Amino acid sequence: MARELIKGNVAMAESAIRYGLEAYFGYPITPQTELLEHLAKRMPELGRAFVQAESEVAAINMVYGAACTGVRVMTSSSSPGVSLMSEGISYIAGTEIPAVLINVMRGGPGLGNIAPAQSDYNQAVRGGGHGDYRNIVLAPASVQEAIDLVGLSFDLAEKYRTIAMILADGSIGQMMEPAELPEMRPIQRKDPEWATNGNPNRPRRQLTSIYLEPHDEEITNLRLLKRWQDIQTNEVRYKEYYLDDADYVIVGFGTAGRIALSAVRAARAKGIKVGLLRPITLSPFPVAVMDELSQRAKAFLVVEMNTGQMLDDVRMAVRGRAPIEFYGRPGGVVPFPDEIMSEIERMTHAKLNSQTDPRMAWLERALAR
Amino acid sequence: MVTLIKPTFAMEQNAVYCRPQAFTDVSTHYCPGCTHGVAHRLIGEVIDEMGIRENTVGVAPVGCSVFAYNYFNTDFVEAAHGRAPAMATGIKRVLPDKVVFSYQGDGDLASIGMAEIMHAAARGEHITVIFINNAIYGMTGGQMAPTSLPGMKTTSSPNGRDVETQGYPVRMAEMLAQMDGAGYVVRRSLHDPANIRKAKKAIRTAFEVQQHGLGFSLVELLSTCPTNWGMTPVDALGWVNEHMIPAFPLGDYKVSPAVAQIKF
Ligand SMILES: Cc1ncc(C[n+]2csc(CCOP(=O)(O)OP(=O)(O)O)c2C)c(N)n1
Ligand code: SF4
Asked: How would CATH label the architecture of A239-368?
């Protein structure tokens, strides 16, 4: 297929259709709305299910119902809406059924604003709802990657009977870029052995998330964790840029990672040996590569559009073996490559200490600015 | 310890009363004399009579009937508290040829799930809802429900429901009948055999409405909770007749003209 200029939200919506989306349930919220609007037009045209729900609570529970039948189903929202969905996310996790959720993040907490942010990292990678479970979380840094990750998220959700969430910041949803959509795939409706689809000539099936007997719930929690172990072993994804000989390693995901790449290129032009690690799976987090890098890097710089959420995962992976610096722009502010360039230069000159708290050190600098 | 009549007994030839095919071979966890069991039985009989057992997906609520899925021999899912109509919507939209019903209590449907039920009706979802109104939260031990009567003593209205501070009972059938998407909305009672027969006919009609694609259908059933009302099962049936029916009048609140044409 040819490359075309396409907006991120529309691209993710159309990609989902082409990867066989059979049902979509959602509720309007900026900066995600074009995704819902595109599906409002396209899904009925194709004879597929589309419902604008009365709330995100209802939307995710419609997803829950449709997911129980074994079809490809999705919802999308932005931060405040995802908070409302956390009930359903937890139930879907507890029922062990596949579903895809796209969060086009905005600034928060509260109503926040509609500018691009990465402030839902913790909510996404730590599960979001109540109970003992984890979600697969994928972070695109371009419209093309968003298109591709939509397809991957369906496959992963189905393979592991879990939720796969695409955590895109508002700029991925809003920007237009040349990208290539996949071919239209015919819908292949499957009959997974667990699906409550009312098919005749077999014993009845039930799907539930209630295990009144604590030992049964314990077994369920262990089963979920075992599955998570497989996901961690098989599904970690990330991109490396200029890391082979890098003294300094920048870690950033999504838009922050992309902006950091511009800064890395500029720094390389000045002869600074710096590289970028851009996690694509935020959960499972790319621990092994971080582990390897922390044995040879002079220092790390974590760049995020929040006050340092992935930073904690980096700190856990590095385990004090190298100093870590942090640079963040929270609240919907998008950093410029120059700002990150200055951080790289500061890092190469400063006396770094792996004992200082990178978030608090950054806060002092940020407040003094 | 309750002695159970072996189901095989009823299965013997010439039996005049047996377990519906739509039931599984287990005994329920409901308290003695609770009319949840009667409501289940009526749904099971209707599913049998319509021959839809293998085409039906049920949605259980959060409430005493959370384990309804153990008792029906059909596919079943268990929803979050109040969200059964949304879950049923998700199922029905991808499986329009299947019969989808939810079974919900009054806390589930009229309190936490008020938005989901109203909008399922407004959208005219082709689902059937069996709504058990027992004027109390059974499962959590007898707290006030949105349907508790003025003055009714519950564990969260220990001095009786004070309408000044705790509001008035919610009449769901009347409200849902206002939704253009609703094809059939009625209220029946389970307090005596004559009313139980009428309830069964209404449940059958509601499922037929779905089969004929005539919109949202709901049967509200006035039901007992002897345990949390602190009454014997017999007194509880009497209390439905004396106190609940005046507050929740029985009747047909919405029967769209096409529904009247259905023959079964
Ligand atoms: C989100 C949430 N809030 C509260 C509860 C606790 N809870 C369980 S059942 C119930 C009330 C059920 O009452 P009703 O729907 O009237 O059904 P009944 O038990 O009377 O049949 C409540 C409040 C819950 N499970 N989930
Ligand atoms: S607590 Fe009430 S509603 Fe629940 S099973 Fe017992 S009698 Fe029935």
From this structure: 3-Layer(aba) Sandwich (3.40)
